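Local shape tokens:
==================
===
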Amino acid sequence: MPVENDAPAAQPSTLSRVDLSLAGAQQVLDAAIAAAGEIGVAVCVAVCDGGGNPLASARMDGAPVLSVQIAADKAWSVTSFGGLPTNSWWPLIEGQPALVHGITHTPRLVIFGGGEPVRVRGSLAGAVGVSGGSAEQDTAIAAAAAAAVG
């Protein structure tokens, strides 16, 4: 008589992920700069891989210096939460005072528009952060940039 084996299936000891390459990051960066130029706004752009590690960045002439770090933090925020765009945060937490007053103090977390995931073959391969325009402008530029690869 066979014995039932209730042991859980073995889990892999490593995971694979798809990451943007430097060439892919440059495509995203170029698309962001082009999109910003089309609407006449000077921005900072940061592109990271799927682990939130920096790959490429640029500060357009006239873009605020403070926006360099904000753009990087937007990209990092997206990858740190599995691809959640930064403009999706506020609708998720606005009715929860503990989160509004707690999670917003997390270093580097950005909860307003301008951070978008870069997906390749359905996987989170990186993110792009844009800062320097309004939240709506930053979001539109980042969305156009994120669509440059895939």
Q: What stands out?
A: The first strand starts at residue 44 and ends at 49. Residues 42-146 form a domain with the Beta-Lactamase fold (CATH 3.30.450.150). The mean pLDDT is 94. The helical segments are 22-39, 66-80, 89-93, 97-102, 135-146.
